[in-house]
Amino acid sequence: MEINQAVRALAALAQESRLEAFRLLVRAGTDGMPAGKIAEELEVAPATLSFHLKELSNAGLVEQRREGRSIIYSLQVEAMQSLLAFLVEDCCQGQPHLCEPAFALINCCDDVPEPKKSKRS
């Protein structure tokens, strides 16, 4: 991910309603959620939500598709993965044990291989 893409994504997430919508869509997975359900879950007016979802979409973090009369929003998984990778790219600087506490906090990624132990340990 290029730095300008990361800045756009982080700027889009730097607002409470958008961050809540993004996290809700992360939990919804690749199936996504109808816009009306998102508005209901977040207790946000539909017009306000549309503005926030447009910002997330312009940042490349979510996508939309039409199913009948509903607009379904879903997470752009690759964009989220790219942003996370960008943020931790230089994290450990060859010392993976420094990142272990952070990865231990992420309970959704049980299949991520454990970092190799430092030879100095």
Summarize the structure.
The chain is mainly α and 121 residues long. The chain has helices spanning 3-13, 16-28, 35-42, 46-58, 77-88, 100-105, and strands spanning 33-34, 62-67, 70-75.
Describe the structure.
The protein is 52% helix and 12% strand. It is mainly alpha-helical. The chain folds into 2 domains: 3-79, Arc Repressor Mutant, subunit A; 90-121, no CATH class. It has a 3-stranded antiparallel sheet. A hairpin with a 2-residue loop joins strand 2 (62-67) and strand 3. Helix 2 crosses helix 4. The protein is elongated and about 50 Å long. Residues 110-121 have low confidence and may be disordered.
Key attributes of the depicted protein:
121 residues; mainly alpha; Arc Repressor Mutant, subunit A; 2 domains; three-stranded antiparallel β-sheet; 52% helix
- The gross shape turns out to be elongated
| Uncertain stretches | 110-121
CATH class of the largest domain: Mainly Alpha
The CATH architecture designation of the largest domain is Orthogonal Bundle
Number of helices: 6
From the 3D structure, determine the CATH topology of the largest domain: Arc Repressor Mutant, subunit A
User: How many domains would you count in the coordinates?
Assistant: 2
Chain-averaged pLDDT? 85
Strand/helix succession? HHEHHEEHH
Proportion of strand residues? 5-15%
The helix fraction, in percent, is 40-55%
The N- and C-terminal alpha carbons lie at a distance of 33 Å
Number of strands: 3
Looking at this structure, what is the CATH superfamily of the largest domain? Winged helix-like DNA-binding domain superfamily/Winged helix DNA-binding domain
Instruction: Strand order, main sheet: write it out.
Output: 1-3-2
Backbone CA Rg = 17 Å
